[in-house]
Target: ATP-binding protein
Amino acid sequence: MDIEARIKRRQRRNGEPRLIQDYESISPIVHIEEPADRGPVLERLLDHLDPVFDGQLPPNAYVYGPRGSGKSAVITALFANLEQLPTEQQAIIHTTTRAQPPTSPSFVYVNARETASEFAFYHAVLDSLVDDSVPEHGIGTETLKSRLHELVREQRTGIVIAVDHISEPESIQAPALVDLFAGLPSNVSWLAIGRDDPSTTELTRYTAESISIDRYQRQMLVDVLMTRASNGLAQQGLDHSLARHIADWADGNAHDALAALFIAAEFAEEQSQNRITQANVDAAIAEVPDPCVSLGVVLSLPTNRQAVLRELIDLEESERSSVTATTEAIASVESVDLSAGTVKRFLYEMAESGVVDRVEATVTNGQGRPPSRVEPRFPATAFRRLYDLQQ
Model:
């Protein structure tokens, strides 16, 4: 940890000892600059990207692995560093003019969870390449696409685009991504990152290589947890034995392991403890659904849907006895500012995408089919805190 990070940790204490020094460091939706124990994976990715160090574009590739295997953590860290490499050699890219041509490709990371539409995708790419923010309103998709085409053609050494979270329910699907890339000039190389096996995705028809990222091994995941705890918690806030316990339970899934750590720390903080206990960890593990939807997915939803979920997790049991009861309870909250019909539609849509489950209610009046209710497929405590921190 660097000096600046140490100073920030002490600033956050506000004069009182606290277990959680930095929420961001233990957050399951935040990737740290140096992923722990991922050297071999980074080397495989650098082998593929090696042409960029000679000012050439690498071929297209598909990076795949199971949920929680650290794909996003590795790719975001790698691209953040690669973006810095050409800065001493190339001029800043502008939408119209450039002082001198770059000698290395540019690197762009796109989160497909947040850019599912054609407009959003091209906007994200263009916004990453220019100095000034690209307007989100008052500009059409074709105009945006035309400006991006012009800029990419000017970028003679090309652009490498990584598109993460492909083919998830709320993100860009593989066929749509192929069409988006087909609409770009030829001096664009891409990495698509997803969970599907290479034999089952259309993307591999257009790639030269498929790069597998395996689940974390147990000791790797322990190192991840201890690194995050060291950065985000008070000294000795997490015992090594508890990190091993979480890692054993998570079975190589870093998202679920970090979610359990985050929740356990929150439980301990609520009790004014200076260390996480076994009881905290057991309670946290019990709260993580199996299977669990990534908190990154939930926090990438539109703001109004997140607001509905925020109210959902705080409802009394009687208010969650049926979809109708839940809808009425959420719609009655003034801050939500949505009609009952809209709330119900959002709940059904999120059930279809897997963010919540529709389950048969246990209480029935004995007539007809029992009503259904909705249950979140994500840990409520972690979502509550992360959502509130963003407000």
